[in-house]
Amino acid sequence: MKTISSNVENEIVINKSRFICRIYKVYSEDEVLNILSNIKKEYKDATHYCYSYIIDNTKRFNDDGEPGGTAGMPILNVLESNNLNYILAVVIRYFGGIKLGAGGLVRAYTNSVVEALNKGAFKEIKKGINITINFSYDKVKLIDNTLKNINIKNKDFNELITYNFDINIEDYNNIKEILNQNVSDISIKEDIFIEE
Q1: Is domain 126-195 given the CATH code 3.30.70.1150 in the classification?
Q2: Common-topology check for domains 2-120 and 126-195
Q3: Among 128, 127, 161, which residue's Cα sits nearest to residue 142?
Q4: Which of 21, 28, 145, 181 is the most buried (most CB within 10 A)?
Q5: Topology of domain 2-120, per CATH?
């Protein structure tokens, strides 16, 4: 599973119609709604704002007034065929006065997204968890050695030492036993996403 590393924009012109494709990394439907609202303000005189997004197992698309199945679904098909997730693709269309027909619209929206994706870079993403552990000072060498390949986001040194870090499920399963035997307290927050 991949997502885009950073937002991308591309524009193509077909028979005087402008197709501006913007691709965003998104982790919630609220983010999608916010982006769509901003796009409609920025391109307030555009004819259509067609989009598709995939967030985990949620997939949505919208033809925004184009004939059914000619915009949103082709955009979604491109995202799916590239094994993308946590992604939103919006194609803003300015109608140029020449009708493209259903097949022409499908090709235009598909090519718009394909060309934008060709400009982007991608990252693998895995489901992960966020962990906070508390442990005594005599365990610091063992814990540091166990977590040597993990980026510790936060370290606090009080009566006990507290570490906070993100880890993918696979790596966590490899160290779970050591942690459970050597830390006095562990709290786990699930459903985070780690870019690798």
Answers
A1: yes
A2: no
A3: 161
A4: 21
A5: Ribosomal Protein S5; domain 2 (3.30.230)
